[in-house]
Design goal:
The longest helix is centred in the N-terminal third of the chain and has 17 residues, at about 5-20. Strand 5, helix 3 and strand 6 (about 120-140) form a beta-alpha-beta unit. The protein has helices spanning about 5-20, 65-70, 100-110, and strands at about 25-30, 35-45, 55-65, 75-80, 85-90, 120-140, 145-160, 170-175, 180-185, 195-205, 225-230. With about 230 residues, the chain is α+β, with helices and mostly antiparallel strands. The N and C termini lie far apart (about 50 Å).
Length: about 230
C-alpha cells in the first residue's frame, strides 16, 4: 500500500518518457494487493515542444484475476479508462504531432526484435472507456474534427484457446462533429475465420465535410448531404 505506489510512479514516468521521447507526468498510482487491483490517476503526455497536452486521462483501473496463474497468461477482471483525451494534428508535409513518437517506437522495436515464440496469452473482461474525446486539426484540408462523448464497452476479449471461437461484442457511442454515432459489432478476432458483423447507426449524419477525404479528386461538388440509415456490414 505504501512502498509500491511511489516507486511505480517514478519508474512509470521514467520509462514512458524514455520510450516516447516526451515529457510524461502522473498524479498518483495506487495499488491494492489484496484485491489485485491498481489505478493510475492523472496521466499526461505533452507535445514535442513540451507546451501543451497531446494525450491525457483522468484514471485507468485494472483488476487482475488469480486465474492468471492457472492460465499462464494475463487475466483481467476489469480494465476501465476514464476521460481519455487525444489531440492529433496533421501537417502538410505528411507528418503529424505523433510522428516522432511512432518513429522512436519503431526504432526501439527494430533494435530489440527477436524470435520470442508465440505471443503472450491474455483475457480481459469489462473493458470500458468513458467520456473520451479525440480532436483532430487537419491543416492539410483546413478542417477540424472532434469525436466527443466517446463511450466504448467491451464485455471481454481473449486469445486463450478456450475462448478464441467466442464472439467478442464491442459497442461504441459518440458525437462526431456534433452528429450522433453508434456502432455495435460481433467479431472473432483471434479465430481463423475472423468472422465479423458490424452494425452502424447514423442519424442525420452530415457527409459534406468528409468529401475532402475521398481517395480520388472528385469531379463534383457536395454542398450538403445528410445520411440517415442503419448499416450492417
Amino acid at each position: 500500500f505504501l512502498a509500491v505506489p511511489p516507486v511505480a510512479k517514478h519508474y512509470a514516468v521514467k520509462i514512458l518518457g524514455e520510450q516516447l521521447g516526451r515529457t510524461v507526468s502522473i498524479d498518483a498510482i495506487s495499488v491494492n494487493p489484496f484485491r489485485l487491483s491498481a489505478q493510475v490517476r492523472g496521466l499526461r503526455i505533452l507535445e514535442a515542444d513540451g507546451q501543451s497536452e497531446a494525450f491525457s486521462f483522468d484514471a485507468l483501473r485494472a483488476n487482475l484475476e488469480a486465474e492468471s496463474i492457472v492460465r499462464k497468461g494475463v487475466v483481467l477482471h476489469e480494465l476501465a479508462l476514464d476521460r481519455p483525451r487525444l489531440n492529433l494534428s496533421l501537417d502538410e508535409d505528411g507528418r503529424n504531432n505523433w510522428s516522432d513518437v511512432i518513429e522512436r517506437l519503431q526504432a526501439n522495436s527494430a533494435e530489440s526484435t527477436q524470435d520470442d515464440g508465440p505471443g503472450a496469452l491474455f483475457s480481459i473482461g469489462n473493458i470500458r472507456v468513458r467520456h473520451g474525446a479525440i480532436r483532430v486539426d487537419d491543416r492539410v484540408r483546413g478542417q477540424q474534427h472532434e469525436l466527443s462523448e466517446l463511450d466504448l464497452g467491451l464485455p471481454f476479449i481473449s486469445n486463450l484457446p478456450v475462448k478464441v471461437d467466442v464472439f467478442v461484442q464491442p459497442s461504441l457511442s459518440a458525437m462526431l462533429n456534433g452528429d450522433p454515432l453508434k456502432m455495435q459489432a460481433r467479431t472473432k478476432p483471434f479465430a481463423e475465420s475472423h468472422e465479423t458483423v458490424l452494425d452502424l447507426v447514423l442519424n442525420e449524419f452530415d457527409l459534406a465535410p468528409w468529401a475532402a477525404y475521398l481517395p480520388f479528386k472528385p469531379t463534383f461538388r457536395l454542398p450538403s448531404a445528410l445520411l440517415t440509415s442503419n448499416l450492417e456490414v
